[in-house]
Amino acid sequence: MRVVVALGGNALLRRGEPMTTEAQRRNVARAAPALAAIAADHELVISHGNGPQVGLLALQSAAYHGAEPSTLDVLGAQTQGMIAYVLEQEMHNVFPATERFATILTMVEVDGEDPAFANPTKFVGPVYTEEQARRLAAEKGWPVRQDGESWRRVVPSPRPQHIFELDAIRVLLDLDVVVICAGGGGIPTLVTDVDGRPRLTGVEAVIDKDFATELLAREVGADLFVMATDVDGVYLDWGTPDQKRLSTVTPEELRRLEFPAGSMGPKVEAAAAFVEATGKRAAIGGLADITDVVAGRAGTQVVPAGAREEEQR
After folding, report:
1. Among the four residues 71, 118, 138, 284, which has the most C-beta atoms within 10 Å?
2. Whether 280 is catalytic
3. Is 202 a catalytic residue?
4. Domain presence at residue 311
């Protein structure tokens, strides 16, 4: 089976943890044995989030007054390298010595007319109190929004249109290489026409990792699309005494429900879109349970309506 796993930024760096390389390494080290178990039986593609990491780099870049701050596309490229480095290293430590890995710096095309550029919604960076967030907004001109009980910076999040390195990713998979790609949703890239030739340029935005990985999963012919996060599935009435985890659900059932746009909403939408487009399975669950999530024993399993009816019979 060809399995595409999206590791959430909050799964690699849990809420409340210090934003250090060692904290991320500890979380990756915990996940690596499960990823090795998946790779032992399946072809494996890994993407990862970068919201906390790219936001921290943006803060560090803006704090240095000797040069212009780096743009979000450049920061996204940096996070692809630094997160994949930790992933590859920790996986080498637990995978069989014969396993091969490759990280692909991935550019993803976006539309310059996407309405997301006029309505920033994607959370990046650390969490703040409301007072801290509003002070940073005034100092740096950042839009900020509430994220649960905390506040965070938000940036534009246009929809992914095309993955430029897709052919290279397919070749590596056919060679049975574990591929890390589309990190942070990919580097947001505009295509313009200059003298009849396409010209690629980066743009100040962050692509949603789940939407980009759903596109990736479809394009590489994945049999299963998994989104690993810091909760064990999709919940109704989250954070209330009546909260209930969804176990097996169809895209149609998911689309009748409402989920927060800044957290579980994109995952639910990406899972539904993948199942509808391919007729195959998607899943959302905890990184610690990823082996059981892949096997269909844990998390929220999103299946075609026909499969749900067969299960009920």
Report:
1. 284
2. no
3. no
4. no
**What total number of domains does the chain contain?**
1
| Residue 75 located in a structural domain | yes
Burial class, 66, CB count within 10 angstroms (exposed 0-12 / middle 13-18 / buried 19+): exposed
C-alpha 193/C-alpha 188 separation (Å) is 17
To the query of whether residue 209 is one of the catalytic residues in this protein, the response is yes
Catalytic entry in 184, 233, 267, 280? 267
Q: How much is the pTM?
A: 0.87
What is the distance of C-alpha 84 from the center of its chain? 13
- Of 8, 10, 76, 186, the active-site residue reads 10
11 pLDDT band (50/70/90 cuts)? Answer: low
Q: How many helices (H) and strands (E) are present in the chain, helices listed first?
A: 11, 17
10 is catalytic: yes
CATH number (domain holding residue 82): 3.40.1160.10
Tell me the residue range of the domain where 46 lies. 2-111+161-222
